[in-house]
Amino acid sequence: MSALINTKKALERRLVQNFPNTKVAFENINFNKPSEMYFEVQLVVLQPEDVVVGSKYYRERFSFQIFVVDLPNKGVFDAIDVAEQIRTIFDKGMFLQESDSRIHVLRTPRIESPEIVEQRLVVPVIIPVITEVYKD
Q1: In angstroms, rounded to a whole number, what is the distance separating the alpha carbons of residues 12 and 92?
Q2: 61 bridge partner residues
Q3: Burial of 54 (0-12, 13-18, 19+ CB in 10 A)
Q4: What count of Cα atoms within 13 Å lies in the side-chain half-sphere of residue 35?
Q5: Quick one: CA torsion of 11, 12, 15, 19, rounded to 10 degrees?
Q6: pTM above the 0.70 mark?
Q7: Residue of 52, 18, 33 lying closest to 119 (CA atoms)
Q8: pLDDT (tens digit, 9 = 90+) per residue, 43-60?
């Protein structure tokens, strides 16, 4: 299976397992926005890294973006607290194995400033991810 699919599956599974009571809007899947906090996720594919001269190994680079979406007019503390919890479960040094892909978080995830988008408070959590790819 491809490194992209393996990475997406592993990261989304980890999020859902750690927040079983929070609804998640996945990419390109119909979603009815609930009246409570929920997450929107996307996996952005970045330029791969060729860290060796040979052609048998490279690193796929991704930005796993989780948007904590909450109701407006109730302050930012709940959403920021959840963003911090997400940062903890995807902390620097964490790795996952999915099929033949080893997925690493090598940098501390970034929590961005809260903002109002479409009448909802949104706190982005940006997680830099590297997946090792070995070719036969």
Answers
A1: 17
A2: 130
A3: exposed
A4: 0
A5: -170
A6: yes
A7: 33
A8: 999 999 988 878 889 899
